């Protein structure tokens, strides 16, 4: 009778209202990613104007190569710093602070008066981009429900695509200085949105702030009352209590730890060092970290990322039937549209099938570009020398290039980054994984000129195709399906012995049916 009376008194929260509150809470990370997309694509619009410019600032071929890849070199530094910042300041406050490097960078880029100031501004863009990673992925992963987490993580990537498209569009209407000045609006907006959203409940519980955690969860589940979120809150409280256990030996938390745990008697610095070492090298962290880093390696080196800084000139070198700047703009549109498609595809087919299919599609597109370049371009064609570009144009490389951009946009490594790591190491592991992505991006961008010099354009794209095929094989054997799983389920899964696939994963069920059919008498 009492339960029925409570159900009548407490109205249920509509699903739309619940999801809307989570979407609004994701706006600060979304604007961070909008800024990130603009930062990583800035070199694409700046290099053509700066390369051998007749007046103002000018870059030669080597300087242009370094300018295009420099931000990737400083991004890992920012990514490694992002984990400690998030753990110390909290997810919400970190989302505010990480905007500062880009504020300084865009101002310095606009006023750049010589090459050192230009390169420092680009290095700051990379540093700011790297330091954004852990706040973005930690916040979105921890505030969202399992049923919508994949979609919300994909929406954040949609804002990256919007940022890329916005920068490519700005490159067609203003010069690179004007684009830098306009970009200042984004970090300022992101900082303003932070004041409208709560801290994540898990982090608040970990810090012992239960009342604030409950208010935060009520906000995130549709501005509801504590009674409507009591069950989920109790589960989070139970989970947070386990997080208080000793990270090294899993002894009990609270007062009992003083008696039973020898690590409690260590000095604080030594205990922190032991804890960091144990947590980061534990199988529940090391296994997903290896997966994400390998995924980033194959994702980055399978086509679009290495050619992005010099994309305009590469389009001309391949003899495309469209102007290079127009191609770059359409690539931005394709990236945006594929981000929209991914939101629906993740719910329909899951992350595993989508990731493998996207990697295969990218590899096949690179094979097509390699075959075309081998059969139709002279050995003298060099993307850093416009005088060597072919006079005849064709739509074939244009279509293949757009296909490569489309399949690259269907990749989901950043979505995995927000959900596969345990709470204790989440921010630090996300920082390390993001740092690896930027290191691979730097190596890919910086070595493109060497690949083209030694192997020509066809050899460069053949190399990227090889990475794509190897990546598809790796993901087939090591990427589990995480769609619809809670963060606690994923954490427990990587802590088991048979961790490559979930027990009820379709891949397991397929092999079981195959074995039964094969050995049936």
TrEMBL record:
PROSITE patterns listed in its UniProt record: MFS (PS50850), SUGAR_TRANSPORT_2 (PS00217)
Superkingdom of origin organism: Eukaryota
Transmembrane intervals: 94-113, 119-140, 152-174, 180-206, 289-307, 327-347, 354-375, 395-417, 429-449, 461-479
Major facilitator superfamily (MFS) profile domain location: 1-483
Claim: Membrane is one of the keywords in the record: yes
Main localization of the protein described in the UniProt heading: membrane
Cell wall biogenesis/degradation in keyword set: no
Topology term for the membrane: Multi-pass membrane protein
Pfam families to which the protein is assigned, alphabetical: Sugar_tr
Alphabetical UniProt keywords: Membrane, Transmembrane, Transmembrane helix
Subcellular location: Membrane
Family annotation (PANTHER family): MAJOR FACILITATOR SUPERFAMILY (MFS) PROFILE DOMAIN-CONTAINING PROTEIN (PTHR48021:SF39), PTHR48021
Name by which UniProt lists this protein: Major facilitator superfamily (MFS) profile domain-containing protein
Taxonomic source organism: Iphiclides podalirius
């Amino acid at each position: 009778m009492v339960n029925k009376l409570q159900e009548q008194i407490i109205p249920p929260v509509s699903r739309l209202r619940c999801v809307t509150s989570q979407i609004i809470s994701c706006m600060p990370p979304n604007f961070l990613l909008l800024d990130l997309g603009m930062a990583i694509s800035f070199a694409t619009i700046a290099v053509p104007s700066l390369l051998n410019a007749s007046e103002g600032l000018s870059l030669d071929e080597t300087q242009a190569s370094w300018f295009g890849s420099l931000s990737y070199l400083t991004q890992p530094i920012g990514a490694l710093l992002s984990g400690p910042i998030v753990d110390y300041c909290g997810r919400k406050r970190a989302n505010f602070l990480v905007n500062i490097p880009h504020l300084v960078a865009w101002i310095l880029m606009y006023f750049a008066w010589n090459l050192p100031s230009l390169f420092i501004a680009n290095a700051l863009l990379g540093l700011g981009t790297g330091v954004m990673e852990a706040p973005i992925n930690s916040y979105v992963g921890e505030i969202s429900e399992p049923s919508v987490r994949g979609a919300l993580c994909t929406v954040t990537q949609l804002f990256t695509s919007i940022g890329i498209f916005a920068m490519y569009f700005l490159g067609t209407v203003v010069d690179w200085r004007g684009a830098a000045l306009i970009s200042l609006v984004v970090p300022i907006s992101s900082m303003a949105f932070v004041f409208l959203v709560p801290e994540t409940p898990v982090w608040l519980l970990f810090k012992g702030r239960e009342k604030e955690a409950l208010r935060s969860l009520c906000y995130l589940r549709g501005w509801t009352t504590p009674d409507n979120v009591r069950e989920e809150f109790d589960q989070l409280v139970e989970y947070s209590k386990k997080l208080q256990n000793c990270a090294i030996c899993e002894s009990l938390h609270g007062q009992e730890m003083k008696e039973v745990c020898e690590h409690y008697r260590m000095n604080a610095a030594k205990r922190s060092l032991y804890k960091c070492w144990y947590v980061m090298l534990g199988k529940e962290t090391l296994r997903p970290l290896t997966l994400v880093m390998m995924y980033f390696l194959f994702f980055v080196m399978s086509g679009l990322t290495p050619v992005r800084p010099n994309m305009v000139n590469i389009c001309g070198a391949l003899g495309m039937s469209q102007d290079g700047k127009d191609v770059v703009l359409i690539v931005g549109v394709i990236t945006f549209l594929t981000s929209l498609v991914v939101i629906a595809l993740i719910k329909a087919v899951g992350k595993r099938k989508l990731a493998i299919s996207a990697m295969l599609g990218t590899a096949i597109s690179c094979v097509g570009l390699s075959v075309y370049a081998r059969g139709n371009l002279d050995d003298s064609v060099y993307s850093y020398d416009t005088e060597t570009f072919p006079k005849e144009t064709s739509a074939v490389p244009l279509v293949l290039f757009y296909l490569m951009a489309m399949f690259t946009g269907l990749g989901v490594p950043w979505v995995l980054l927000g959900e596969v790591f345990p709470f204790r190491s989440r921010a630090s592991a996300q920082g390390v994984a993001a740092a690896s992505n930027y290191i691979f991006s730097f190596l890919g961008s910086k070595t493109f000129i060497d690949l083209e010099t030694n192997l020509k354009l066809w050899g460069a794209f053949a190399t990227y195709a090889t990475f794509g095929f190897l990546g598809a094989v790796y993901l087939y054997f090591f990427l589990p399906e995480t769609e619809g799983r809670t963060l606690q389920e994923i954490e427990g899964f990587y802590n088991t012995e048979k961790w490559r696939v979930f027990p009820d994963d379709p891949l397991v069920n397929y092999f079981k049916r195959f074995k039964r059919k094969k050995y049936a008498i």
